[in-house]
Hints:
mainly beta; 4% helix
Amino acid sequence: MGLRRGACLAAVATAAATAAAAQESNGIRQTFDIQQRFEYGRNLDLATPAEGSTSVAATVLSYGLTSATALDRLAFTATGALVIENSPDTAGTEVEFDRPEVGFLYVREIPDALFSVALRYVQDDVSALADDLADADADGTQIDYGVVVRYEGMRTSPVSIFIEGRFEATEYEDTTDPTLVESDTIGVAVGTRLRLNEVLDGVISLGAAREDDADGTVENTLVFRAGVEYDMIDGFAAVFLIREDGDIEDSIGLEADWTRELADGALNLGFAYSETDTAGVAGSTVDTNIDIGWAQTVNAVSSVGVELSWAQSDAPTELIEETELAATYSYTLTERTRLDVGASYRLREDGGGRATSPQVFFALGRSF
């Protein structure tokens, strides 16, 4: 059982939990927020044939702590929700404290070097966290946690270096999908940043990763990334080529992101393409993702946002397409109180047929 959400709804929940008010003591800033959400949707798992409707009332609690000095920055966030849900996956109406999420970041920076440590833990429905489009309609709960350690040196020179180590783990609970396998991944990467001019950087890195699955499968992968980052006056753009050579899978891909700041808003475009060959499987799997986001300030107290996403996975055994359109409206009632309303519509077509899922939500949040 969990608080279900689409990509746009997740962004709105995060925005509503952000507080302007804080308690400050000796350079430490603390925030505490509470949000009451009401959600109603149909066939949220995108099942074929369609499942029934889901009603959710969730009280979301958030705590944040930040600290900053001339050399150090620290941030800690923790979120959880008391969820009352009635859905096809529950035995009537059930109550549970659900969807915990914890994040920690520490950065120490001087002009010529930077050291950072980032940790995260998140638990939610598989449909909300799955990276693979083939798993986006699976049931059960997914748990992701990990740590990233990074060092950058020679940052004031035309050519700088960086090294990054990471550990990631994925676990599952209450799932009936045999293709969902728990795994641990450890990796390291080294690279360089070339400052071509004041606004254009080139980035090249080479990494290695080892993934251990719960079924005993082990895969070692070499990862090569090369791209450019362009810092514009009114936006940012980046394009990267990624090549992965593994024991089981080989892939090549392209990722591009573009952000444009508008007079009272922003426009974001994202594109990703990859072609993967799997040992023992005839033919390649081609994955394509396109994301468009638009946010606009209406006046001093209100704003709107629209997101459109399209994803396709063309595998030798199945063609999957998923489209989502979501819109939100936010209104600041007082300095510490905010109202968010929104709706989304998702469409999925795969080997099992066509599935649709409309959803609406209402949220009222306050900062203390």
